Every structure is written in structure tokens, then in C-alpha cells.
Fold this protein.
Amino acid sequence: MANALLSSPVSIFALGGLGEVGKNTYCIENDKTLIIIDAGVRFPEEDLPGVDYVIPDYTHLRNNRSKIKALLITHGHEDHIGGIPFLIQNVYIPVIYAPRLAAALIKHKLEESHIKEQVKIVEYDENSEIKIDDFRVQFFQVTHSIPDSFGICIDTPEGRIVTTGDFKIDLTPIGPDINLGKMARLGTEGIDLLMSDSTNAEIEGYTPSERNVVSSINEIFSKATGRLII
Ligand SMILES: [Zn+2]
């Protein structure tokens, strides 16, 4: 990048979600701006009796609260949005950008916690482009086990960062198709850092389409002889 020598370094770090399943919370920060991507919880396992949720340590965010400009949400799973009530009790988040389904889930969650008024939620779609100080943000549709999931591309003065969010390539999805064309274009233009998150990506082979769930449920219903509880 031409002006890289003049720009302040960009740091990328995880407050949760690396080396664990849950509490995904990633930060992109330079000298005057801090953007958070996702704010999840982790569900405790048997070694944490009596604990409802495990949340990240927000100390760094509290210490840099004036730099926090936005929270970007990739999709509506709890390990990506479940931490929002806890996060906004720790620091002021000026705006949350989220896809439509996730935005609805977040609003419901905040109503339950009685903290709806303090937070501005803006829905984005694939055509949205957001400028946050020196950072330019755009989105691309992915497929996952919940509809309305997105990857995020952030252009910084130091280079382009792409995070896929959680995804699997599902060619017969329930909901919109993955935008492989836009992903390819971003790749052709050049990506300096790719953060990719796809469960079991290390294992060879294919994952069945989410659509298979429909036929499985139909089969269970058709064979049931009594009451079914799902
Ligand atoms: Zn997910």
C-alpha cells in the first residue's frame, strides 16, 4: 500500500474464539479506531458447574473505550452474539452492524436484558459499504448452519483483512446462496490477511447440505406413532 509508511500499525487480535469453540470476539485496531467483530459467549462444560456463560475478558476494551467505533456481527449464532449484553454493560458501543436475522435476535436479546435504548442497531446486506475512520467495510454472503451469514472485508491503510465468519459451502442452502463470485473478486484484488473459520475444515470430504435436515425431519414425523417434541 502506497501510504503504509504514514499510517499507524493495525493490530488484529482475538478476545475469544481462537483455539476454542465459542465466545468469538475479534478486534481490529489502530491508533484511533477499534472495531469489534462478533461478541459471543461460550457454553460451560462439566468442569464449570453453576456457570451459565463464559465471556471474554473485556479489560482491553474498557482501557480503550474511546476508540471503539462499531461492533460488526457476522451471523446470529450465540457464540457470535450471546456476549453482546455483557459487552455493552462494560463499554459503550456506538453502533452494531448486523444482518437482518441476527439484528432481530440481538434486539430480542437486549429487550430481555432491558438495555435496548442504549444501542443503535443497523442492518446491513451484501451491497452495504461502511466507512469507519480509516477503515472501509464491505460484506459477502456465505452459507452456514444458520441463514443470513456473512463474511467481512475490511480495507485498512495497512492492507486488506478478510474474515469469512463461520461458513460451509452449501450448494443447496436454505436461504441465499454463498457469493463465491464476490469472494473470488476480493481474492483477485488481493487479500493481505485471511481469517477463515469452517468447522472440521481439516477433515477431508464433504459436509451434507442443511437441506438434508428437512428430509430427516419429514422422515421422523412420518414414522412417529406418538407425540414428538423437537
Ligand atoms: Zn456459527
Observations:
- Residues 75, 77, 80, 144, 166 surround zinc ion (CB under 6 Å).
- The chain has a mean pLDDT of 93.
- DSSP finds six helices and eleven strands in the chain.
